[in-house]
């Protein structure tokens, strides 16, 4: 085992519901993955990629409490293991099964933890996880903007969805660690920034810039600022729920995944409305803000851009994002990976999946006929150029990755035993340490 830089891509597996829960938007189906999954894995190998953001479709896998249909997961994950591709397993990507309903359901966190534990038990060779994808965006689109799932447009709906999503993520991490003590969790979360359009907009922009951190603050057990604490309690979070997050800090098992697109920066008007700002600060500046707050290793977990009329727009964006990753890294931030998301083009993301128009979005490394796009060729070359350079640099944090083919080796078993012992020691120490509020 040696230091590795995690060059990755992903299979888009968003699956929210729209039209008041009556229509499921299954991106794996829209993009043809259920039919062409073997070809898709071939393409991952052709690019020289060994890390794949991937997960089973929760709505067809999780059938009820303790009831699972693993048929598709068994087939696909066995093939990934055979190819020695390490999945970063995405267990909840914007949707839940119909029988759970939506993210307002208070039973969701415990039920999801059972699902995560069951997955880990069935696939114990899997080490890397994103239990819940983009918790902030999922809560915002589902319960503040009214676009998906519960389709609410209230602060209380947003806080309820957010606390359930983050609690689900924390409980899932704990359940997975019971099975795989050296599991590593890569939180894929949107990195946002809100720019005040004029002095009158400073106040609403400040609130939004505080709110953007809520999902990771809760997930990492970091105390929120006083204004956000009041916001949470005013909108349905109890003191006990807040303390749950403070007392369940699993930060030492985590890598902070930052997603960055041109749409992540916003111009704020005095009345609090926002519109797209385009790239102003960029990935470098915003990721430094997040790293300064959480002090965790970083992975760039999502980016893409449409292939435009010239044909080189996505290629130039890839180069720009990679330059930003190197800049962050050269500033001393331990950046351990980069992801172009996703492997193939996507469908209907031009309306954020709100409208089932069947419009193909040319965002992938390959088109939906599985022909390589210019950005795919450029990413393949970038990986070939840099793959042997980055691991040799001492600034790179050595992440104790165990590839699927290494799971039975002696050093990998010893690593798990050592981590399990450390986890037990830390749990004992935490139980004997009074909390900051004296309880």
TrEMBL record:
<dbReference type="GO" id="GO:0005975">
    <property type="term" value="P:carbohydrate metabolic process"/>
</dbReference>
<dbReference type="Pfam" id="PF00232">
    <property type="entry name" value="Glyco_hydro_1"/>
</dbReference>
<dbReference type="InterPro" id="IPR001360">
    <property type="entry name" value="Glyco_hydro_1"/>
</dbReference>
<protein>
    <submittedName>
        <fullName>Family 1 glycosylhydrolase</fullName>
    </submittedName>
</protein>
<dbReference type="InterPro" id="IPR017853">
    <property type="entry name" value="GH"/>
</dbReference>
<dbReference type="GO" id="GO:0004553">
    <property type="term" value="F:hydrolase activity, hydrolyzing O-glycosyl compounds"/>
</dbReference>
<feature type="region of interest" description="Disordered">
    <location>
        <begin position="413"/>
        <end position="439"/>
    </location>
</feature>
<dbReference type="InterPro" id="IPR051923">
    <property type="entry name" value="Glycosyl_Hydrolase_39"/>
</dbReference>
């Amino acid at each position: 085992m040696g230091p590795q830089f995690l060059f990755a891509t992903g299979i888009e597996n968003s699956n929210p519901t729209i039209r008041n829960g009556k229509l499921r938007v299954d991106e794996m189906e829209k993009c043809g993955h259920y039919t062409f999954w073997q070809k898709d894995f071939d393409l991952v190998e052709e690019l020289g990629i060994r890390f794949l953001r991937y997960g089973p479709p929760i709505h067809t896998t999780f059938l009820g409490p303790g009831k699972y249909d693993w048929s598709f997961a068994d087939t696909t994950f066995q093939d990934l293991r055979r190819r020695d591709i390490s999945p970063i397993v995405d267990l909840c990507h914007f949707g839940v099964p119909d029988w759970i309903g939506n993210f307002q359901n208070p039973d969701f966190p415990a039920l999801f933890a059972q699902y995560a534990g069951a997955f880990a038990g069935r696939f114990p060779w899997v080490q890397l996880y994103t239990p819940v994808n983009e918790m902030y965006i999922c809560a915002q689109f589902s319960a503040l903007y009214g676009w998906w799932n519960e389709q609410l447009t209230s602060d209380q709906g947003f806080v309820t969805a957010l606390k359930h999503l983050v609690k689900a993520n924390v409980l899932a991490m704990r359940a997975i660690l019971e099975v795989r003590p050296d599991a590593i969790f890569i939180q894929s979360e949107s990195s946002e920034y809100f720019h005040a359009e004029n002095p009158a907009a400073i106040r609403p922009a400040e609130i939004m810039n505080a709110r953007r951190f809520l999902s990771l603050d809760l997930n990492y057990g970091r105390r929120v600022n006083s204004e956000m604490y009041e916001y949470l309690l005013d909108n349905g979070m109890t003191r006990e729920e807040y303390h749950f997050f403070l007392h369940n800090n699993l930060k030492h098992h985590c890598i902070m995944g930052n997603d960055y697109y041109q749409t992540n920066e916003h111009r704020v008007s005095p009345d609090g409305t926002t519109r797209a700002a385009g790239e102003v600060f960029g990935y470098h500046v915003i990721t430094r803000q997040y790293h300064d707050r959480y002090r965790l290793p970083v992975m760039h977990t999502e980016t893409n851009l449409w292939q435009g009329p010239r044909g080189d727009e996505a290629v130039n964006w890839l180069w720009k994002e990679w330059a930003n990753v190197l800049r962050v890294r050269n500033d001393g931030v331990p950046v351990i990976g980069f992801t172009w998301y996703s492997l193939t083009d996507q469908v209907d993301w031009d309306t954020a999946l709100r409208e089932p128009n069947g419009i193909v979005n040319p965002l992938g490394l390959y088109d939906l006929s599985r022909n390589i796009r210019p950005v795919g060729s450029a990413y393949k070359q970038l990986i070939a150029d840099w793959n042997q350079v980055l691991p040799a640099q001492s600034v790179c944090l050595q992440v104790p990755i165990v590839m699927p083919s290494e799971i039975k080796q002696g050093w990998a078993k010893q690593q798990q035993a050592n981590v399990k012992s450390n986890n037990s020691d830390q749990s004992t120490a935490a139980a004997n340490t009074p909390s900051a509020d004296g309880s």
